Amino acid sequence: MESSQSNKFIMAFLAAVFVVMSVSLLSDVIFDSPKPEKEGYAIQALEQPAGGGEQEAPKAVPIATLLQTADPKKGEQVFKRCQACHTGEKGGPNKVGPDLWDIVNRPIASHPGFSYSAGMKEFAQTAKTWTFEHLNGFLTSPKTYVKGTAMGFAGDKNDSERADLIAYLRTLSDNPAPLPAAPAAAEPPAEGAAPAEGGAAQPAGEAEKPAGEATPPAGEKPAENTAPAEGQQPAPAEGGQTAPAQGQQPAPAQGEPPATNQ
User: Fold this and answer.
1) Which of 43, 110, 220, 252 makes a 20 to 30 Å CA pair with 31?
2) Residue of 68, 73, 67 lying closest to 139 (CA atoms)
3) Residue environment code for 65-74, b if the CB has 16+ CB neighbours within 10 A, otherwise e
4) 123: CB partners within 8 A, 6+ apart
């Protein structure tokens, strides 16, 4: 009895295995997807540009240029983020960072009562004062600009926003520092000036001399008895008379009868 029941379980297991294998083989036949002889499109790798494929980083805009259009009112709103660590009023207390009143052109690491990091003290030995350029570089990336600083601010990469903030910090003073002059733009070449051979520009309005015609040196007269050009009236000879052209009789002298053809 027990052996008959065991045989039933074995037969049921084998039947289940047979069904599973049959379904698997049948599905392979039904859903078979052979590889096409010709691909629909070819996938090509992008070519690396010459020079190692590295693109030149965009040139940073000088802070003097950014400050020409900066808005201190907008900078005041940006400064609200800084108030968690800094105060901006005159005689304000030090917090996590020093008070920022009169920060522009203030000696670096010099605010009384604040303990500066070793990195900031070392930076002060070379940088000396907080110029507009130093403020711009420090606020862009503090830990990159001053190695070892304890400032936890990650930096502001937005040029206009950073310029607005610096413009506002400039106003935190009884005598705000003057704005730096914008860098002078390169002047374009004069209109009508064409570059001559070798890169030198030819002054506008100067006529080009024909090839082959020599210009006499300064102070030297042109050679005498120079043959006139074709179709050009000969120059009068000494005494006011003009030399006759070829095939033409000379004009009679004053008081002398004209010559007749004999």
Assistant:
1) 43
2) 67
3) bbbeebebeb
4) 108, 109, 146, 147, 149
Query: Can you tell me the distance from the alpha carbon of 102 to that of 90, in angstroms, rounded to the nearest whole number?
Result: 8
> For residue 78, what are its two tokens?
């940006």
The count of C-alpha atoms lying within 13 angstroms of the C-alpha of 247, restricted to the half-sphere facing its C-beta, is 0
Domains of the chain: 63-171 (1.10.760.10)
Percent of the chain topping pLDDT 90: 44
Asked if 78 and 160 count as a contact pair (C-beta separation under 8 A), the reply is no
| Residues whose CB is less than 8 angstroms from the CB of residue 236 and which lie 6 or more positions away in sequence, other chains included | 242
What residues contact residue 70 under an 8 Å CB cut-off, 6+ apart?
Answer: 160, 163, 164, 166, 167
Tokens of 223: 């050679």
DSSP secondary structure code for residue 236 in this structure:
B
The CA distances from residue 55 to 44, 48, 50, in Å, are 22, 11, 10
**Tokens matching residue 232:** 């050009």
Report pLDDT digits (tens) over 68-79.
999 999 999 999
